[in-house]
Amino acid sequence: MLLKTIDFVRFEGYVIDRAGWTLRWREEPIPLNRKSFDLLMYLIDRRDRVINKEELLQALWPDQFVEESNLTQQVFLLRKALSRHESGARIIETLPGRGYRFTPSIEADTQSQAPHSAEPTQQQIVVTATESTTHVTIEEEFERHDASPASQPGPTWKYLRVAAAAASALAFAALAAAGWLGYQRWLDRSGGPPVQVVVTGIDGTTGDPALDRALLSALRMNLSQSPFVSLVPKDAVKSTLVQMKRNPDDPIPADVARELCERTNSQAVLHGTVAQTGRHFLLTEEATSCVDGSTLAADKQEASKAEDLPTGIDKLADSIRQKLGESRRSVARFSARLSPATTASLEALKAYSEASRLAERGELPQAIDLLKKSVADDPGFAIAWNDLWAYTASLNGDPISSREAIQKAYSLRDSAGALERLTITAHYDMVVVGDLYKSERDYKTWTQLYPRSITAWNGLSLTQQQLGHHSDAELSAARAQALRPTHAGLNLNLALAQMANGDAPAARATCQHAFASGVDSDHLRSGCLQIAYLLQDAAWLQSFRDWAANHPKSPLFAIAEAGIAIGEGRFADAKKLIDRATEILRQQGLESQADAYIRATGVHLIEAGDVASGTPMLRSSAADPETGSDLVGLAEIEDIPAASAGLHAMESEHPQGTLWKLYWGPIVRAAIAMASHKPNDAVSLLETTHPLEAKDLDIPMRRALANFAAGRPAIAERDFRFILAHRELDPTSSSYPLAWLGLGRCLAAEGKPQAASDAYRRFLALWAHADPDALYLRQARQEIAALHAN
């Protein structure tokens, strides 16, 4: 809300004359540059609320790309200027994670003249000078007070010469400063709002298709560094072409490119050519408008030999970015030079390009082989090492197994472009270091520099979900999904974040809108099934099961159904479902994933009371300590040596790992303490998990069980009630029904038989279809009978 504009503002002894652009402390004029004054006025006019940094950046630097450090610098200068008052109160308050706020009460003065105006006999010139990252503003002070003839001698020729020299020097400085300021503004000048472009290809006549594709890959690599020009992802181009009934592998004619551009809400189509005469090459690129096909930007570069092509691509990409409106400073700062930093090897670039093409087609083993060739040709090719890690992790379902590749990429990150450095650093901090808080900062930096990066927003959301910051995770997921509304994974992430944040109806709307828009996948269906189950929407649940009946080769949906079955005590059904799902995975060559799902199901069965079935499933393959849950399962079946050894190895390997310090480490140790019949130790060990206790239902469940076993039912009751109030954190797990059982036991121990009986009945209703011999079902029936007998 914009409050009423006030001409003269008084607060804490300061007086602002808006029209005169002056700030005074009592009788003293305070030098303040224009940007700091604009910031102060903006905060004062909106003093009824907190102003976030993004709004301030847009208000102070409209249609420009500037770093957040510029805003921080202006806040610093403003606070320094507003430091005269005796109260010591902070005029500009920082609210971490939210923004800034103007805090003092103000007095309005609507007089037509500025208070404390200077005497008529005085002249005061106040010119200010500060330097920031984006531009320089001159700030100097020069004051001349006219004096009476009686008190000052008349000017002499020497004095006049000195004065003239000083005036000339000052004029020269002013001109130099104006020139510098103009130059800085010229560097920062942009040609309008950011643009999104569709890159349709490069028509090649080099006679080497692999070289033609490598040049296109190189062009995309350079353009992708831009925070101003964003590229429609290749998979989005392919999926859109499929919707248009076009073969994605065919060349894209101009009319199809225009329609593709419109369908993806882009502004331009970028198409190039490469022609060869002998050893001489001519590279051209042209960006055309999606609206009328007019040329928005075009350039050409020549290369005298093949080895010069990377340099030509660099120059071509920079020129197109600048002609599309990106500022010169931004182009200079955010460029991935193919020569010599990113890779000077044409062979390495060709292998990298072919690997990307094969990965897009799902041929990961072949893509991995080509990436190995790429890094062999150029061991300093940082992004190739990063992709080698990513492809290997995707193939194995295990990001840790390819850790050496991401470590190598991280060691080479300074040779990569800005975007690639962010990508590599975020992956390294997540996978190798395991520091989720640092990873969150990495992704936030990434989103600030590249606000249209889907990968950055999605990675930030996933990290925030791991930290239990569900409201932040939903906002980040929404930003990612808005950039790619037709991507199944992004829709699923948004729906799950909405559910975890307590808005299941919004999550349902996200799923239904995706399906209505033709967005569908096994993964999306299995995730939305959880939301339907949470809402107990029988018709919607049935629609999912009808879909599954028509898609019998859907492993993820069967795994989700197995989770529901365990949560309802239907252990026999769960085992059949997981057997079917893992058989499909093995048929697809995903052996390690199948093994991991079997072990995970074994742990869930153990925690739901079916130790006899869960133990052999957990031991069916070698435990993977990186998952954490395997170690918990080992502790719960009292294999304490194996659980302890795995935990020690992981804590040694991840000394800064957030999850190992605040989640898995305490949980595994607490499970060991419970297996050793030391519930008080378990309670103490779980104290360190408080920062992540909103992550899911596991921590409150373990704390409740430990407190109950330690003879503190009233304390355990609080955690059981928390679980019952937050089923959205894990709606299909056994934690929710077992929390009703735990609550009944607590209330019975507290001498509240009626309330206890009600809680037991809720549990029995949830397990109405449980296996008749399920342990907790039998115990609940016995306990409620004993309660009624008394």
Characterise the protein shown here:
It is a single chain. The protein has about 800 residues and is an alpha+beta fold. Strand 1 and strand 2 form a beta hairpin. It folds into 7 domains: about 10-145, Arc Repressor Mutant, subunit A; about 150-190; about 195-230 and about 275-335, Rossmann fold; about 335-435, Serine Threonine Protein Phosphatase 5, Tetratricopeptide repeat (Alpha Horseshoe); about 550-620, no CATH class; about 625-680, no CATH class; about 695-790, Serine Threonine Protein Phosphatase 5, Tetratricopeptide repeat, CATH 1.25.40. Helix 19 (about 490-500) packs parallel to helix 21 (about 520-535). The chain contains 36 helices and 16 strands. The strands form 5 sheets. It has a 5-stranded antiparallel beta sheet, with no helix packed on it. The protein has a 5-stranded mixed beta sheet with strand order 13-12-14-15-16. A two-stranded antiparallel sheet has the order 5-6.
